[in-house]
Design a protein that fits this description.
By secondary structure, the chain is an alpha/beta fold. Helix content is about 30%, strand content about 25%.
C-alpha cells in the first residue's frame, strides 16, 4: 500500500512570538510524514522553553498546536482547547531537531533528548492529558516506539 501524500500548513504565522517557533513550524510543515501514524483529529501542544527553570515555572517562550487532519497537519499559535498531550522542548533541542532530514532521524533525536536529557541544553518532556492506552491507540505509540521512548519488549500495550 502506498503511503498517502500528506500536506502541512501554518495558520497565521505572524501570531508566533519567536523566530524559533516560526522556524520549527515551517520545518514541521515540510515533513508532515512525522505525524503520519496519528489518527485524524489528534491534536497536541508544543511548548518551547528557554531553560529548565522556565519549564518548571510553566513559562514557555512560545506555544503552538498541531492538528492531524485527513490531509496532513495544521499548525496554529497557542495551545489547543482539548489537547491530547503537551510536548515541552528546550529551544536548544529545537535548533538541532530542525536540522534533521527524515522522520526516523527526527524521531530518534527527539527520543534521545527524552531518554538522556541535558537539562542545561537539549531536553524534552511530555505531559499526557489522556490515558496512555488511548494515546497509543490514536497512533502516538508508533511514533514513541520509533523515537525509542517505548523500548520495553514486554510492553503491555499493543503498538
Amino acid at each position: 500500500m502506498l503511503e498517502e501524500e500528506l500536506t502541512g500548513q501554518v495558520i497565521d504565522i505572524q501570531e508566533f512570538r519567536t523566530e524559533i517557533a516560526k522556524n520549527y513550524t515551517i520545518f514541521l510543515t515540510k515533513y508532515p510524514e512525522i505525524f503520519s501514524d496519528l489518527d485524524d483529529g489528534s491534536i497536541f501542544d508544543f511548548c518551547l522553553y528557554n531553560s529548565i527553570k522556565d519549564y518548571f515555572d510553566k513559562s514557555p517562550a512560545d506555544t503552538f498546536n498541531v492538528l492531524r487532519n485527513e490531509n496532513g497537519i495544521e499548525i496554529k499559535s497557542g495551545r489547543a482547547n482539548e489537547s491530547d498531550l503537551e510536548l515541552a522542548l528546550s529551544i536548544a533541542a529545537v535548533k538541532k531537531l530542525v536540522q534533521t532530514d527524515t522522520k526516523v532521524e527526527y524521531a530518534q533525536l527527539l527520543g534521545s533528548y527524552y531518554n538522556d536529557p541535558d537539562e542545561e541544553k537539549e531536553w524534552i518532556d511530555f505531559t499526557l492529558y489522556k490515558r496512555t492506552q488511548t494515546l497509543i491507540d490514536m497512533g502516538y505509540g508508533k511514533f514513541a516506539k520509533t523515537a525509542g521512548i517505548l523500548e520495553d519488549e514486554d510492553e503491555v500495550y499493543k503498538l
